[in-house]
Amino acid sequence: MAGAPDQSQPGPAVGEQLQQQHVSCQVFSERLAQGNPQQGFFSSFLTHNQKCQLMLLKTVETNPYVKLLLDAMKHSGCAVNKERHFSCEDCNGNVSGGFDATTSQIVLCQNNIRNQAHMSRVVTHELIHAFDHCRAHVHWFSNVRHLACSEVRAANLSGDCSLVNEIFRLRFGLKQHHQACVRDRAILSILAVRNISKEVAEKAVDEVFESCFNDHEPFGRIPHNETYAKYAHRDFQNRDRYYSNI
Ligand SMILES: [Zn+2]
């Protein structure tokens, strides 16, 4: 899933489109924020794009994973602007999103993102790629191990594997399931965007797995659920405050 830096190529009209859509988004977002009882009625008239914009707005304002990542990006000198750095678009296949390293833009696949929770997971996953892009010199295209590392981190830290993990833990008691899920997801993400064999993708993931799986920045821990993410956000804010006082 996701992580399609070389597949997403927004056309030149995207900027204009986004501005237009942003206007309707603002209008409707206020209705949503006020808990308008007719929201369900109105939402049936919204286009995929308007729904995508609304869900994005809510995710950016309320999701603790996303809030932490946005703070961390800002702290690293890569402040994210919602209008400039996110683009709701129709995508091919069942891709949910991607990070376009050439434009530093996160593409959200409005035709495939099913609900608010899904939107939050996709935004978190792609923001981890954006964070990696900001803090390190990532060679997305020429070094598959760089991509593998970021995919391991995105799968590990975004909650992609947490729900599945809980279900499996409950049903089978598999302690190592989280690691196995992260590895499988990272391999699938690479195969979705690179024309390489499964063996090459597996080798790249296995080579970087230990160090990248244990790199929890900017969370400081694996945020298994929203409560963990909230604590991580609070810790990050405190850390930020501490360093800025020096
Ligand atoms: Zn990815």
From TrEMBL:
Name the UniProt key words of this record, in alphabetical order: Hydrolase, Metal-binding, Metalloprotease, Protease
Q: What class of enzyme is it?
A: hydrolase
UniProt key word Lyase:
no
Database matches in InterPro entries = Peptidase_M76_ATP23 (IPR019165)
The GO cellular component terms are: cell junction; cytosol; mitochondrion; plasma membrane
Q: What's a Gene Ontology MF term here?
A: metalloendopeptidase activity
Q: What GO terms describe the biological role, i.e. biological process, of this protein?
A: mitochondrial protein processing; mitochondrial proton-transporting ATP synthase complex assembly
Question: Which EC numbers characterise this protein's activity in its record?
Answer: 3.4.24.-
Query: Does the entry feature the keyword Cytoplasm, yes or no?
Result: no
Q: Which family does it belong to?
A: Belongs to the peptidase M76 family.
What name is this protein filed under?
Mitochondrial inner membrane protease ATP23
Origin organism of this chain? Sciurus vulgaris
